[in-house]
Amino acid sequence: MNPLLFLAISMAGGAGAGVRFLVDALISKHTKTRFPLGTNIINVSGSLLLGLVVGLAAAGALAEPWALVLGTGFLGGYTTFSTASYETLRLLADGRRWTSAVNALGMLMASVVAAALGLSAGMFFVH
User: What sign does the CA torsion over 93, 96, 101, 102 have?
Assistant: First the structure.
């Protein structure tokens, strides 16, 4: 990897983390729930977009360096497995076992489905 690509991926990761912070703050401002809705929306939308990026790259419509900057960089910074894990444990510690399970399994299933839809869309629109 050349230094310029490394720098671009790093900067995109920082931008993704900043956008994640803003999106989560916006969702939190407009919803009054203890359920981590912001993290769920961020991870599912990020999975959809990553699937799209990978699909476009696989179809040859997106050059590999751009796929790395957008996928590994921006979307890697935007999505957050660690926060989702923490929030799931926090729900469990609060005695909200059912909500904790829904959060963990629901987000995983929704994210995988979203990634598959994005991948299909990326490959479909090119052909």
Answer: negative
Vertex 60: Cα angle to 56 and 66 (nearest 5) = 65
pLDDT (tens digit, 9 = 90+) per residue, 9-20? 999 999 999 999
Task: Report the alpha-carbon angle 86-46-20, nearest 5.
Answer: 60
Work out the angle at residue 91's Cα, subtended by the Cα atoms of residues 78 and 87, and round it to the nearest 5 degrees.
15
Model-level pTM? 0.94
Q: pLDDT tens digits, residue range 37-65?
A: 999 999 999 999 999 999 999 999 999 99
* Residue ranges with strand state E in the chain: none
Q: How far apart are CA 78 and CA 71, in angstroms?
A: 10
Write the pLDDT tens digit of every residue in 72-109: 999 999 999 999 999 999 999 999 999 999 999 999 99
Helix (H, G, I), strand (E, B) or coil at 63: coil
DSSP, res 70: I
